[in-house]
Amino acid sequence: MSPLLPAQWESWIRPGSRVFVGGGSACPRALMRSMCASASRLRGIELVHGLIAGECPWLAPGLSDTFTVNLLFSEAGGPAGDIDRTPCFASEVPGLFLEGFLPLDVAVVQVSPPDAHGYCSLGTGVDLASSACRAARTVIAQVNPLLPRTHGASFIHRDIIHACIEATESLPEFESADNDAASTTIGKYVAHLIPDAATLHIGFGSIIDAILAALGGHKDLGIHTEILTDGFLPLLESGVINNRAKTLHAGKSVAAACIGSKRIYDFVNDNPHVEFHPTEYVNSPSVISRNDRMASINSADSVDLSGQVTAEGAGRGFIGSIGGHADFYRGTSMSKGGVPIIALRSVTRDGKRSRISPALPPGSGVATSRGHVHYIVTEYGVATLRGRSIRERALELIQVAHPDFRDDLLQDAVENGWIPSYQRAAPRPVGDLGEIEVRRLELKQEPFILRPLHASDMRRLQEFFYSHTHETIQMRYGYAVSRMTRERAYDLVNVNQSRDLALGIFEVQGPRQIIHAVGRYYLDADGRGAEVAFVVRETRRRFGMGSVLMDALIAVARNRGLRFIWGRVRRDNLPMLALFKRFGGQPFASPETAVTEVDVRIPLDDAERGEASSSGDAPAFRSARQRRTAKRKR
Quick check: pTM over 0.85? Predict the structure, then answer.
């Protein structure tokens, strides 16, 4: 390992050479500044690198005659300038070096000082640097005592380094961005999909930090990720991430690179519980799939209504690249219990463009095909696409699009024949179920979720209906119904949730959801009360589903200012009568019919209760029933 003098650059880098530059936070900046200072003596140099954290002095004006850049992968906000891009899966980039598709003359990297055995560490930038050092005929290194010495497959021997400089430099630091409301909500929806004991791959950016922040209540998580960031630290320090349940590299956090603040650099320094491995290993789909319960979360630029995802930019411009997006999505899809997720805001930052569109703009590159996509998450919920038809996919994605764009998306889908013409209204958010419109339940030690019915639940509702016995249909509808058409099912799932309400309790089997109970209310004309109705699958009765639905309906009704809910129940439907009575229902049996009408007063707070008492709200409550009774007589 010989000292490199500035005058020697032209002896190491011949005209027309291809030079690899170590990336991320481990970019050898002192070396690159020295190389740029010698640019007048170099000719026709192609610089090849991936994501660079911070400045890129070789892109400065006046150096384009000496240096051209071939970017192998980057994130949004990567280096700007006159650069080439080579589309490639991150896992296959090392093969471009080692198999001679992009033969390297020189590799310029940053390393830690050698240990007693002569081994230097590639520190926080093992990703592509490891294969580049093996493929290049010449390796030039910046030896930096402040570069963290990392464990795993991060070591190269001093004997393969041909020339070096010693330069002590702090690594560039990047603080996490503050999470906005949309990112925070996306994080909570994503956290809802990730099981305990999952192994995490999470990308880079504010949405990603919000997702990590939402995982504080999970248990026994692990890490197998491309880039380790500060967002992981609270989970590592609290023990939420302990890697105990991992089926590959148990007890170890695995990454290819690290970018963040001094806190994360100090954490990985000489930490035997964190291993860094080359990109061809970390990003290999076959390796990723060996992690059971792999959960991979990637961001994206746009999604079309069939589920195609682009991460490189909309149209012919590029803001990112393929990178590890497809590697981790495919590997996670093959993992036992894997959960591959695309998370993105519903609109661009300026609010002018919907990120969910009828079709991707011409020239857009598809990072994840419609056949691979399982889940798309925005601040408006989760679209489950695996195993869904084009009609169901379009409806799922419209459901999570920004409300300002849903009507246009629906119209386009109808005009293209993707959605039947009877789909007349775009779905609207409920807005009264808390921060996110899905809630986990455990009933008789079985897991379920509670959420609003969506237009894409049409087929699920048909299956639910055809599971009923004749007796259930008679009890629920009051008359025999033998058929649930698609149009009728559509009417039942596509209610105006901002006025009326339709909730379901679902069993979740991976991306499959099965309806076990439905509760709904329809607002009265005077806006003071609402008629409610329930139906529960026979095999899930006595699970308390009716009580859960009643409690949720009452909570929304109270939030919307309703004073009571009411229902018509057959006199022989004793379980349903008991449900109403459990919530304080007051039955009123008409001698003219076999139906009992039951009213449930909405509980009021102390201030409202005093107002109700002084204003005679109880007579108004009774008069509502009298008006309904009079209307039926007319």
Answer: yes
